[in-house]
Design goal:
Layout lengths: L20 E5 L7 H10 L4 E4 L2 H8 L4 E5 L12 H20 L3 E5 L11 H14 L2 E4 L2 H9 L7 E3 L15 H8 L6 E6 L8 H14 L3 E7 L3 H7 L6 E5 L4 H10 L2 E3 L9 H8 L4 E4 L2 H4 L8 E4 L4 H13 L2 H15 L4 H13 L1
Parallel strand pairs: 1-2, 1-3, 3-4, 4-5, 5-6, 7-8, 7-10, 8-9, 10-11, 11-12
Amino acid sequence: MSDVHASTAVRSVNSKNCVDVWLFFPDYRGSMPYQTLLADALSGRVEVSPGTIGMAVDAAAKHRTVFHLHWEDALYADAGSEAEAAAVIADSLDRLAVLRMRGGLLVWTMHNAAPHEDRFPSLSLALRRGLARLADVLHVHCLTGVDLALSLGAPEERIVMVPHPDIVPAYPDDITDAAARRYFGFGPAETVFAFIGANRGDRDIGGLYESFIALNALYPDARLVMAGRIGSYFEQRFLEPEFGIRLIPRFIDDAVVQYVLRAADFAVLPYLNVLTSGALSLALGFGRPAIVPSLPALLDVVRPGKDVLVYHAGDTEDLLRVMIEAMELNGVDRGKMREQALRSGRKVDFASLADSLLSAVEH
């Protein structure tokens, strides 16, 4: 729906009063800077803390309370069977309905179209449909998210679109590009591509590897850093320095993120499907143009040829073509792309997101 924009606020919620308590679930602050930065932006305006649905129901008896749900599959993550998951989901939706009956508000940020590890697809879909109907505010990051929310049954007037904010402030950023390159042993004339993120089924890590091997045969000065939560399969196959690859086969520390991205000329994000990309936000926030697939949710938020280069999703040969295009860009054009990437990455901050969500629930 093209008429729903980043500044859109919910026009119909339960109360006209200010919110006192903001509880969020699950608490992934140890690995997801998104929640930490949003909590910081909300603090001082509301009382923010992690909490469960039960805690929100109790708080709603005395305070104007928001329960902010993020990765919804966490509600039934401990379920040992499909039957147990179904019972947990039904109970969660019932208790969220009670929360709203008591004057509490449900905010749901829809980060993904479906869980990364979708053990029970029919149940997870039923949960998302239930949340879409119940949520007083359904927050999405792009127009594709708006369309998905509508398809799940969310009323348009309850949907708020705010793009993924800049998450770079959550990470150390105190080294130079030259220092980052020295960290990996890269020379100034080498062109460095970087992948940062988890090894999941929604990313074509193997395709990136194959494309880079072909690229390196054509351009011996091409280099690739692969960093993140990468399993033993990739450790065994990809630790081959003669191909110009630097592999960090673990979940990298926050302090290392700046080394990976500041060493890079381009980030490569080989998604097969995605709704929200924190890795894209991170790359742009560090001023690094990205190579991305032609997926609608990504095309909603980038400027092809300006801050990203785009290849056909799932097409390894086209990924190679675009990596060659990147290699052939001169220094001036690379500099322009970096400048635009930085502008794009810093365009929305968590203070803006906090403003939009508070405006929505207090309308």
